Amino acid sequence: MLEQDDQLKEFYWYIDILQNVDVGLAVLDKEYNIQLWNGFMENHSGHHPNSTKDQNIFELFSEIDEARFRSKAESVFLLQSSAFSSWEQRPYLFKFKTYRPITCTAPHMYQNTTIIPLVSTTGEVNHICIIVYDVTEEAMYKLRQEKPQAMSA
């Protein structure tokens, strides 16, 4: 019985970590319906996890370049290998406001994203996980560094 209690405690730790980690996590099924939405995503989107469950990501977030995202995601489903996108390729996947409006002049949150396959016990990939990293500070620093060079050219 003690082992089961330990497993339950560990499970709750995982849930707590998932909800409080300082990166966005969203799990999508093959129809691009949201199955998991963590605290970071809730805090920055204003959408509660219960209201996003089973919602189509493209209907909920019209700013997502659907063709580009589908192309990346389909390769993750098919090849069972991760895909990455940098803010330098596209500034964001989700148009979230920056959460430091007084100290940061960015018009939005700059994001790096990774899409990872979630392999089932049968070896199939029926779900993917989007990991969203807030890289606004780094992007703003780099853009400020490049600005003087662009002016002198």
TrEMBL record:
Stated name of the protein: PAS domain-containing protein
Biological process, per Gene Ontology: regulation of DNA-templated transcription
UniProt signal peptide: none
Domain PAS fold: 17-129
Tree of life domain: Bacteria
SUPFAM superfamilies: PYP-like sensor domain (PAS domain)
Pfam families, alphabetized: PAS (PF00989)
